[in-house]
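From the thread on structure requests for the teaching lab: each student submitted one protein with a one-line request. Submission from student K.M.:

"Model AP-1 complex subunit gamma from Zosterops lateralis melanops, tokens only."
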Amino acid sequence: MKPLETAEVLQTSFFSQRMPAPIRLRELIRTIRTARTQAEEREMIQKECAAIRSSFREEDNTYRCRNVAKLLYMHMLGYPAHFGQLECLKLIASQKFTDKRIGYLGAMLLLDERQDVHLLMTNCIKNDLNHSTQYVQGLALCTLGCMGSSEMCRDLAGEVEKLLKTSNSYLRKKAALCAVHVIRKVPELMEMFLPATKNLLNEKNHGVLHTSVVLLTEMCERSPDMLAHFRKLVPQLVRILKNLIMSGYSPEHDVSGISDPFLQVRILRLLRILGRNDDDSSEAMNDILAQVATNTETSKNVGNAILYETVLTIMDIKSESGLRVLAINILGRFLLNNDKNIRYVALTSLLKTVQTDHNAVQRHRSTIVDCLKDLDVSIKRRAMELSFALVNGNNVRGMMKELLYFLDSCEPEFKADCASGIFLAAEKYAPSKRWHIDTIMRVLTTAGSYVRDDAVPNLIQLITNSVEMHAYTVQRLYKAILGDYSQQPLVQVASWCIGEYGDLLVSGQCEEEEPIQVTEDEVLDILESVLISNMSASVTRGYALTAIMKLSTRFTCTVNRIKKVVSIYGSSIDVELQQRAVEYNALFKKYDHMRPALLERMPVMEKVTTNGPAEIVQTNGETETAVLETKPPPSGVQPANQANDLLDLLGGSDITPVIPTAPTTKPAAAGGELLDLLGDLNLTGSPVSAPAPQIAQPPFLLDGLTTQPLFNDIAAGIPSITAYNKNGLKIDFTFERSNTNPSVTVITIQASNSTELDMTDFVFQAAVPKTFQLQLLSPSSSVIPAFNSGTITQVIKVLNPQKQQLRMRIKLTYNHKGSAMQDLAEVNNFPPQSWQ
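Reply posted by the TA:
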């Protein structure tokens, strides 16, 4: 025996005498599984970790592989195993394949590019990539493709490229996947793999084909030049896919009767990328897509996966119209599948395509409506969204009937979205005003507590403009709130209508249905019940008190009773209600001669339109009135600390506040800083000097409605601009010029959302230089619907007395996909017509 071998034997004998052999991995797993409690398991792990540490300190080469394997198992259970990182490197440097295998596995699990230790293995990987054994080379490729940093990828890309050209299929498929990782880490190395990648598609081995398609997909997604270069490979990809479809049974690749579905899906995804926005490539793949769509078996989930990828490819390329109809019919068949996941996927896909292929999706309307009855809430939500997207002037009655039935029976979390959708659809496609009013009243009766804040003023405007329906509407609303005040928006609209048209209710002039006999005292009883009801909110009581006051000019026999009710609420603890009562009491005592004129019936409210053709309607169907009757507007004042936070972001110390309702007077000092304007805060401490233009308002909290047009028709030609377009959020500005003051520019913002999820808690804030004054009115909503199915509108009024070029800085905050989003942007491209 040689002296060196003798020394190794003696050393092994010495270690075996000094410490016993560690238990095997299988025995450790069996022992840990016998633990009855978490504490008992933790104790076992700690004991074994202590033994492993001792073995590592003793430099025990005999059992290092076994100890690292046990350490990896503990790591998989969630226990710390970082102390085994260097031992993994020692195993990698070993000449034994079993040691290398565990060492590389440990490196992939315990190391990553954030730790400098991983750089120590670069030379070992380089040596193993040039090893004579393919399995050792495979281990090195897997490790580099799993956790290689950008430095390692730059150093070893040449070796990977060499293996990509080898004739060994086992190494080529692993090298292709490793090349994908290299490209992700160092995109500029992409051209190095270009020559080898072209030849990969000629390989017969399915594993190499699969990985080559993955590599091609990665290169096309990351480089437009590569995308254009590889478009000439479309015929070859089509030929490979056709061979897969037409080939006979192959036990090596067959999955549920389909030949290599994984490769088919990958090729379809690559064709989708290559055919997007390219007529020639799309034309070359139309026939094969039709063959896949018609020949694929749908009884198994494997076939459904291929069909789904085929549908996505057809919809994403410039395919023929007949092929798109075929794709939508496949999705329609998916809706009849018993698998909930397939139904959900079909609904989501149809929702994405309904805007471009509306008529084809309409054919499956009945199946989509049936999905509203599904027990799965995610399917139910997608079906609801798709149902609203399918509503048009031809089917509005039938679809609204189904959606109202759904509103009656759906869970509370659906009611708000469903009610909003019905409002928008009814406003856009209502066949008659009576149907429109009946539909909205049905929603308020069913889910009044869940409707958006703008539902009440919108319905009031609708009722006001439907002159012939006043008697019918007030009678319906009166009957709807008899004894039930739980639906506050319904009670608010009913109170407003009773106050406006109470004389029609008492006279029984309704021609639409059988009139009811109501006395003046019965009407007042209802309104007084609303005032004292515990379910009535402060806003609702304000509606009721104002309605009672209006009835003093509509009724003749109960004026004294009305005076008494008004005087009682002059001492209410509700400040809003008290102020109304005091002012109404002053009307009776000091200005009784003005009372009939002040409380006369509201004129027809004109809808505020934006620039552009008159027939274009806002997508969310919302309307605005010049002044909303009696409903206190939501406060636009932000908390002071929030104002200061935004000021810190924008910089500067001179503050010009955003005016929430009417502009306050501010000094017109010079200064160009773009500052935030939040809250009605005069933070400058400067005395009031030049008065800003005042917007006419009624002297009391009464129904004031200006009859003068708010906007100048001359400004109809001002072009709109896109102020912000990022992360699926788009904000457009349209412009009007005030008719009362040419120095006032009225900007209407429209925020839309093209992503697949709603944006909630949306807040738009704006800042202008000190020489301007800004008034930011309340937004129409705080939720921007997904898929561009609706918009938020908000009005900004800017006073520009010096006719300077308009500049603005905006701040956007909202919640999206569970995360709070915030962004700042500057808008400097205002058209000259908007400020000159």
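TA comment: The radius of gyration is 37 Å. DSSP finds 34 helices and twelve strands in the chain.
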